[in-house]
Amino acid sequence: MNLKKILAGAVAAGMLWCSCAVSAAALPQKQSPMRDITTAELVKDMGIGINLGNTYESCGDWIAQWGDGTPESYETAWGSPVITQQMIQGYADAGFDTLRVPVAWTNLMGDNYTISDSYLSAVQEVVDWARDCGLYVILNLHYDGGWLANFPTDKENCMEKYKRIWTQVSDAFADYDDYLIFESQNEELGWESLWNRWGGTEGKAESYALVNEINQTFVDIIRSSGGNNPQRHLLISGYNTDVELTCDSLFQMPDDPAHRCAVSVHYYTPSGFAILEEDADWGKMRSTWGTDADFEELNRNMDLLKTTYVDKGIPVIIGEYGCPKKNKEEESVRKFLSSVCGAAYERDMCPVLWDITDLHYDRNNCKMYDDTLMQQLLAVKGDSDKPLLGDCNGDGSVSAADLVLLQKYLLGVESLSKEAAALADCNGDGTVNGLDLAVLRQTLAQV
After folding, report:
1. What would the pLDDT profile of 246-275 be if each residue is shown by its tens digit?
2. From the candidates 156, 187, 202, 329, which is the catalytic residue?
3. Which terminal residue of the chain has fewer beta carbons within 10 Å of its beta carbon, N or C?
4. Going by C-beta distance under 8 Å and a sequence separation of 6 or more, which residues neighbour residue 447?
């Protein structure tokens, strides 16, 4: 049989399976009452998460000029396909517990900072899909074109815009249960125009004070709105979501009458590995990670968060952690991601993987590209007994050795145990044949 035909059939079968995988299990409804649990208990229950990145936070004037004025034109502007219910279900099927949804709320915004009904509905649909399959959802105000950078020079207008956004969002989601968490901002709270961390202390107190004021405004807005919002668990953006800067004593958690706030930081350290794909004028790219010094740095940062916040009863969510795959050693990528995830989780923090289209999660086939990585992430929370499809030889990873074994089995040269045959059924159709070989080839080609 022609291999291209086999592969096409395998992909179609995978997409068909994905479209039929929506769970019918009874789950908490979005209008359910809030549970009597602390934010620390909630964060622990949030397990491990993933971001729906480069989707609803896409922004830029060129999108309005190029697009057709619909939410989909923004949704797809940075490379994502249109989001479907099956894609969201795939996150839950993979083993994630939490979905972070970054949003640029000024897209299609009307007069008086009025959020577009169609844009709000598109985001709300994704939140509903995530809730229907049992996922926690973190909903934020993201970079949003960078207007938050103007806070130091245009505070009145920026604060009015910020208030209008969160007033509308909190009203729209007021009746959702506590599986929905609002996050005050992304990484933009903190301004080099006021204070440069490498240039002394001038302006530092002023910059921190403005961060604290914005976060307090966020809490005040949510707590004064209706529905479940007076008791909603909230995520407070740290200073530029930087670990060290957020652990500075000048950063203050807002006063919250409900005492239901966690703090958010991001983890892209060391930047040479976790950010750069090639050398830059400010740093040298690293292709590997995993030295003793690397692990010491990771544990030092996670311990700092634990002693500053977790040990004092303030939960921590790593709202983003990640690294690119281009120009990186495959095993180093796995080691970095699983190690950051594990270091956070074992200290009672919720780690949320940063992901964009074609990085870690395949939005077309509704599954992770790298099953071995997913198994390592699941092992962090003791959930690694999930079958690793394609691991025909049972060594805990999917590699070329499994491909060779499956080829020999199909040629009648080797036999497979019942357990191995179940893992070799890569497309889930109940039989082991050439379609599974094609799916396995495709999987290895994408890793």
Report:
1. 999 999 999 999 999 999 999 999 999 999
2. 187
3. N
4. 330, 369, 370, 372, 398
